[in-house]
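Below is one such protein, fold included:
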Amino acid sequence: MVFFTANLSGRELVGSSGCASITKPGKITHSVAGFGCLYSTSATLIRDVSIDMKKILALALICLISGKALSDCSFESQKDSYKPEIAAILAEKAFKEDNVYFIVVADGIGPSRPGFDIPFTSCIFKNTKWEILWVGADSQYCVNHEDLIAQARSFAQNFNRSMVQLASNQLREVCPEFHKH
């Protein structure tokens, strides 16, 4: 009887001419005997590779989806609704309708908050609503990308400054740390 040991992709194949076991360090994960030894061992390795391929495909899909989300240029088709000169009027209208929210611009790796000139605390984050203007995020797939970013930032700045002024009393009630500002 001949004993052998082989390392296969981080697993160890241990056996003799009649049987083999695939092990992880200190643990037998699969045991086979007789003529089916080679077939069963191969099937286990193929199954392990298949599981790894599923993980790789899942990761690739996640990257593809997130890349597509970050390249969202929906602001491009809605830009006429976001003219900077009417931002303060829209903020006042929303405030009167008891619809207090702020605007962020997805124009880079992290969204920017133009005109939101108060400390961004966890309380404010948790207790306020946010609208996102998608301007391609960290990709540059939007047509007229720089012009769209400038318009979105200008609109958000005007809107947020007006909303902060209008809603400061409400923010003080909800978030005690806002009293300092």
Remarks:
- The chain has two domains: 3-69, 74-180.
- Confidence is low (pLDDT under 50) at residues 1-8, 13-22, 26-43, 66-70.
- DSSP finds five helices and six strands in the chain.
- Residues 74-180 form one domain.
